[in-house]
Write a structure and sequence with these properties.
Layout lengths: L18 H16 L2 H23 L1 E4 L3 E7 L5 E4 L2 E4 L5 E7 L3 E3 L5 E5 L5 E12 L4 H4 L7 H18 L4 H5 L3 H17 L3 E12 L2 H145 L3 H10 L13 H13 L7 H12 L1
Antiparallel strand pairs: 1-4, 2-3, 2-5, 6-8, 7-8, 8-9
């Protein structure tokens, strides 16, 4: 109980509760006293049953991990079913679940070693590696017959027996060197067919290591060393023989090379002499061709000049003849023009004379038209045509106008009237 004078005590500590709080506590106690004991026990039993049912229901959902398959065995009927990875409703009171790995498994390590006997009876220790898995289709029918550890109790013994059965047909030296793959394929084929009967699929088999007995290995190493020494000696002899042959061939090649050089030098000199002779003959031919070409060019130049002079003379003659012909034609044309013009003038004068004789009044009109463009109307006086014409000629000859202005104005007035 906290002391009321304690400084760390909360406010109101040590004081009696207020009146409403006392009333609430009293009412709660009254209600509890009114609840029957049997009903409370029944409620508690229902709660415990619900919790137990929930736990049992939650435990009935069984999970199967990826890479595994579950063997579901009924507790009452013994029915077996293979369940894939996932969550399945299998109550523990009704079913037993056994997880089986169905993914690929590898058999390796010290547990995969065994001894086989070769054709000569030599024991050879073999270490294999095998990749295998269960056949899901046969798992329901073969699961009950499988041992607890199939890898060591089933897979390895069958593989070892297959290797022992096949290895007796091969010599030990062939097994070590070139028949290892063939031994592996034959043994794996035989073991695969036997394991498939138990629902196991053997996918691949390899020989990891192959160990011979120490004494056989020692003898084999000595034999290999002897063979290697013999082969080395043979190789050395072959190398010496090849070296001698190479020296001989090099000497012959050097001799042939010197001969070839001498022949090549002589051939070069002969070719050079022939080339100089051919070049001289070619140069002389070129000089002769050059002289002939110059002579022909001089003759061609002479002929060209003669032809040009002849052509110039012919051109001058043709031009002179053409000029004479042109002048003759011009003269004839001019004479013809004069004759034609004279004839035309004569004809014109003849027609004008006939017109004048027929119409005397045309003389003053024509004369007036030729005198000036300003005179529009000429009033012919009453005098005779010959007198009027003579008067007009006299005026023009004296430098006077053919018609006086007064007469012209009077003529205009009379014409207007």
């Amino acid at each position: 109980m906290t002391h009321p004078d304690d400084p760390l005590a909360p406010p109101g500590a040590g004081q009696p509760p207020p009146e409403p709080a006392r009333r609430s506590f009293a009412a709660l106690g009254e209600r509890l006293r009114r609840i029957p004991v049997g009903r409370a026990l029944l409620v508690l039993a229902g709660l415990f049953a619900a919790v137990g049912a929930f736990r049992a229901l939650r435990g009935s959902f069984r999970a199967v991990e990826p890479g595994y398959a579950a063997i579901s065995v009924s507790r009452f009927t013994g029915d077996i079913r293979v369940l894939p990875p996932g969550t399945h409703f299998r109550p523990t009171a009704l079913y037993d679940l056994h997880a089986v790995r169905v993914s690929d498994q590898l058999l390796s390590g010290p547990a995969s070693r065994f001894l086989v006997a070769t054709k000569e009876g030599v024991p050879v220790q073999i270490t294999v590696q095998a990749r295998w898995s269960f056949d899901r289709n046969l798992l329901a029918s073969t699961w009950s017959a499988l041992p607890p550890d199939p890898a060591r109790e089933l897979v390895l013994p069958i593989i070892a027996s297959a290797f022992r059965a096949v290895a007796t047909t091969y010599p030990v030296d062939r097994v070590i060197s070139e028949k290892r793959e063939e031994l592996t394929r034959s043994s794996a084929k035989q073991a695969r067919s036997r394991l498939l009967e138990s629902g196991i699929v053997l996918k691949e088999v390899w020989i990891g290591d192959l160990t011979l007995p120490p004494e056989y290995e020692h003898g084999r190493v000595e034999l290999v060393d002897e063979v290697q020494n013999t082969e080395k000696m043979d190789v050395t002899l072959k190398l010496k023989t090849k070296e001698i042959e190479r020296t001989r061939l090099e000497a012959e090649a050097q001799k042939i090379l010197v001969e070839k050089h001498a022949e090549a030098s002589a051939s070069q000199r002969l070719i050079a002499a022939r080339g100089e002779s051919e070049a001289m003959r070619y140069v002389l031919a070129l000089k002769q061709k050059e002289i002939d070409q110059r002579r022909l060019e001089a003759e061609a130049d002479k002929q060209t000049r003669v032809k040009k002079a002849q052509a110039d003379a012919a051109i001058s003659k043709i031009e002179s003849e053409a000029e004479v012909a042109r002048r003759k034609v011009l003269a004839e044309a001019e004479a013809y023009t004069i004759r034609t013009t004279s004839a035309a003038q004569f004809e014109s004068l003849k027609r004008e004379a006939e017109l004048v004789q027929a119409n005397p009044l045309l003389i003053p009109k024509t004369f007036a038209d030729h005198l000036s463009d300003k005179v529009q109307v000429i009033l012919t006086p009453t005098i005779g045509g010959e007198a009027f014409t003579g008067e007009m000629y006299r005026r023009v000859a004296n430098g006077k106008p053919a018609v006086v202005a007064k007469a012209s104005s009077s003529a205009d007035d009379s014409g207007t009237r």
